[in-house]
Design a protein that fits this description.
This protein is α/β, with parallel strands linked by helices. It has two domains: about 180 residues, Alpha-Beta Complex (Quinone Oxidoreductase, Chain A, domain 1); about 140 residues, 3-Layer(aba) Sandwich (Rossmann fold), CATH 3.40.50. Helix content is about 30%, strand content about 20%. The chain is built from 13 helices and 15 strands. The strands form three sheets. Strands 3, 4, 5, 6, 7, 14 and 15 form a seven-stranded mixed beta sheet that branches. Strands 10-9-8-11-12-13 form a six-stranded parallel beta sheet, sandwiched between helices. Strand 1 and strand 2 form a beta hairpin. Helix 5 packs across helix 6, helix 5 packs across helix 11 and helix 8 packs parallel to helix 9. The two termini are about 15 Å apart. The mean pLDDT is about 95. The structure holds zinc ion. Zinc ion binds next to helix 3.
């Protein structure tokens, strides 16, 4: 089968490789649509972000490596002898981070907090290939009402659902979301589905503000025209929002906000409110902890998305309560287009992309 392999950062090649036999607890799938996550796209070019050191040392010792490809929709071709509940022909998506099954957390029914298990696309080969072998515990069935293209966004969206659960939004809470890239738009829609009251979004791109309003934001602030902190305070009676999601941070070179949006977010949340950190910054930051202490801010980071989050995500998209379609602007045809999808996704601002660029591998 054909599979993309990395020989070094920035050097990916479409190789012919042997397909292993299907283990008893795995399924063999044919990827239909796959997209690089923003993190994977940055790593592909050696841009420091989450897991950079891990990928760098693996490439130095083990290249060529099949890397990435955990955001996908695939069709099952074969099921392992111990797998129940799935059959050839089923469409599936998957969660990325899996429990190890054998640590104190897993043994005490807290496997959702296990950090020792494999991650699809890192320790396990992902779906930038004509076939993939996946552990059945990773999977969720895709509802017939969800297209292949939207299904490829389910994994990322389930991470945003986990973020909203971590924030413990109460019905009617005012919520502000800095950044209306894919995670920002997902977090905004997830917050609405989970009971948020007033929803305020912030971006510097007029088109992102428009999509945000079309998908349910009450107000979208263009931060290149207005001060978002002042605007959010004005819209919340001078207090600031109950919950603020920070989804804009990251490399300025890639069109992201550096740490500016995080600093603004700390002023846009009300005293005693919650700030949820979604962005990856690629290195340590300097933060005014005294300010956070003085304002009793809760700075939270999302839990790992679980099987329950993924199943709920399927329901939200199937029932139309969350729509990802308007954010999908680049759909490329054929496995040979994978490098182009990485290029667009790593430089979303330049290509006016919101969701990562997708590749249709099969139909
Ligand atoms: Zn474990």
């Amino acid at each position: 089968m054909k599979a993309w392999r990395f020989y070094a950062f920035g050097d990916m090649r479409l190789d012919d490789i042997e397909l292993a036999a299907c283990p008893p607890d795995h399924v063999l799938v044919e990827p239909l649509v796959v997209q690089p996550s923003a993190t994977e796209a940055q790593l592909a070019f050696g841009i420091p972000t989450l897991a950079y050191d891990h990928v760098k040392s693996k490439l130095e010792t083990d290249a060529p490596l099949q890397l990435f490809g955990h955001e996908f929709c695939a069709r099952i071709v074969e099921v392992g002898s111990a797998v129940t509940g799935y059959a050839p022909g089923d469409r599936v998506a998957a969660r990325a981070k899996l429990p190890c099954g054998d640590c104190p957390m897993c043994h005490s029914q807290r496997s959702d907090d296990c950090r020792r298990g494999p991650i699809i696309g890192f320790q396990l080969p992902g779906c930038f290939a004509e076939r993939a072998l996946l552990p059945a515990i990773a999977l969720v069935k895709v509802d017939d009402r969800i297209s292949d293209s939207e299904a490829a966004t389910l994994q990322s969206l389930s991470d945003s659902i986990a973020g909203v659960e971590t924030a413990q939004i109460r019905p009617g809470d005012s919520v502000a979301v800095f950044g209306q890239g894919s995670m920002g738009i997902e977090s905004m829609q997830a917050a609405r589905a989970c009971g948020a009251g007033q929803l305020i979004t912030v971006d510097v791109r007029p088109e992102a503000c428009e999509i945000s309003l079309a998908l349910g934001a009450d107000q979208a602030i263009n931060a290149s025209e207005d001060d978002p902190v002042e605007a959010i305070r004005d819209l919340t009676g001078g207090e600031g929002a109950d919950v603020v999601f920070e989804c804009a941070g990251g490399s300025v070179k890639l069109g992201l906000a550096g740490d500016r949006a995080l600093k603004q977010a700390m002023h846009a949340v009300r005293s005693g409110g919650k700030l949820v950190g979604i962005s990856w910054f690629g290195g340590p930051l300097e933060l005014d902890v005294d300010l956070m202490r003085e304002r009793s801010l809760r700075y939270l980071f999302p839990d790992i998305s679980s099987q329950a989050h993924l199943e709920y995500t399927v329901r939200l998209v199937a029932s139309g309560r969350i729509s990802m379609k308007p954010t999908i602007r680049h759909v490329l045809e054929g496995i040979d287009k994978v490098p182009e999808a990485f290029e667009i996704t790593a430089h979303k601002a330049q290509y006016q992309a919101i969701n990562p660029a997708q590749v249709v591998i099969a139909t």
